[in-house]
Design a protein that fits this description.
- The chain has helices spanning 2-10, 34-45, 59-63, 68-74, 78-81, 95-104, 109-118, 128-141, 146-162, 175-179, 181-190, 192-215, 223-236, 240-247, 251-262, 271-275, 277-290, and strands at residues 123-126, 170-173, 218-221, 266-269.
- The protein is elongated and about 75 Å long.
- It folds into 3 domains: 32-91, no CATH class; 92-190, Helicase, Ruva Protein, domain 3, CATH 1.10.8.60; 192-298, no CATH class.
- 60% of the residues lie in helices and 5% in strands.
- The chain is mainly alpha-helical and 298 residues long.
- The longest helix has 24 residues, at 192-215.
- It has a two-stranded parallel sheet with strand order 1-2.
- The relative contact order is 0.06.
């Protein structure tokens, strides 16, 4: 209200004062051409009797030697660059870095694509070889992590447009799919029934892998058990991973109890465990109290 009154009386807003004592300012950018400025200065220093070592070839080694005068020659005002005393050069993201971003980061674009396809009732499974190939292509873009979005969109664009209007409900992103997405899409549409069975089975194994990672307990499905779970999920009209989480919802608690009792951390799920998961889990837990040996794993 006071600001409005001042504006009415004086015709302008009063200046606001901000104490920057406890504010950390971070300035970042690509600074294309800065390395040339640094190289030129370093070459000048190699002429004459006071010549120093040769100018390094790698860009990162050159930029690591950037000085205030280089930034000024690059175009910064001395008054501005003088207020940025700490300067660091970020290494380019490697293929391994980009792969880990795809696989492990909290806001991974892969999770976004899983959610996008899930909105159409489609489950997508990204295999590690597919993720690594995406990372390799993103590294070629030379735009850091932004390259991941560019590559993923290029690979999966047609899948997003074509699959929602088909009967395909699941597919796997492999290295071959990343390298030839259009032909992979054509093959998927031509023979999606066989592909779906393979994908559903892999989704069951993916659930087991995530279970192991989240709870520190090794869970393994036999192939026949994986096929049976996938068939039950299809009959129930539910996504495979969601169905597995619901059907085996008590296993994280029961298996941890067994691990505490006898130290067993590896468990195999077979057809019997799929058909009657609660009974099998109960038998395992009871057996862990009766004997120091491992409970019967199926």
């Amino acid at each position: 209200l006071q600001a409005m009154m001042d504006f009415t009386q004086r015709g302008k807003r009063p200046a606001e004062v901000i104490n920057t004592r406890h504010i950390l300012f971070i300035v970042s950018g690509a600074f294309p051409g800065l390395d040339k400025v640094v190289r030129r200065r370093l070459r000048e220093a190699t002429i004459g009797f006071a010549a120093r070592a040769q100018v390094p070839e790698e860009e990162i080694a050159v930029l690591a030697q950037a000085r205030t005068r280089d930034f000024i020659e690059f175009g910064f005002e001395p008054e501005f660059i003088g207020r940025l005393p700490v300067r660091v050069y970020c290494h380019p993201l490697s293929v391994d870095d980009l792969f880990n971003i795809l696989k492990s980061s909290e806001g991974s674009i892969i999770r976004q694509y899983e959610q996008t396809f899930a909105a159409y009732g489609i489950e997508v499974l990204f295999r590690e070889d597919g993720l690594r190939r995406l990372a390799e292509l993103a590294e070629d873009e030379q735009t850091g992590a932004r390259g991941l979005m560019t590559v993923c969109e290029r690979v999966l664009r047609e899948f997003k447009y074509e699959l929602p209007s088909t009967q395909v409900k699941r597919f796997v992103v492999t290295r071959e799919v990343v390298d030839a997405p259009l032909s992979a899409l054509a093959s998927l549409l031509a023979d999606h029934a066989v592909e779906e069975r393979v994908v559903r089975r892999q989704l069951v194994h993916d659930f087991a892998a995530r279970f192991s990672k989240d709870h520190g307990l090794q869970l393994r499905f036999t192939e026949s058990a994986a096929d049976r779970v996938a068939a039950l999920a299809q009959a129930a009209g539910q996504p495979v991973r969601e169905y597995c989480a619901l059907r085996f919802r008590d296993y994280q608690f029961g298996l941890k109890l067994i691990a505490q009792n006898i130290g067993q951390t590896q468990f195999t799920i077979d057809l019997d465990a799929v058909e009657t998961p609660d009974r099998v889990l109960s038998d395992w837990v009871v057996a862990s109290y009766r004997t120091p040996a491992s409970p019967p794993s199926t």
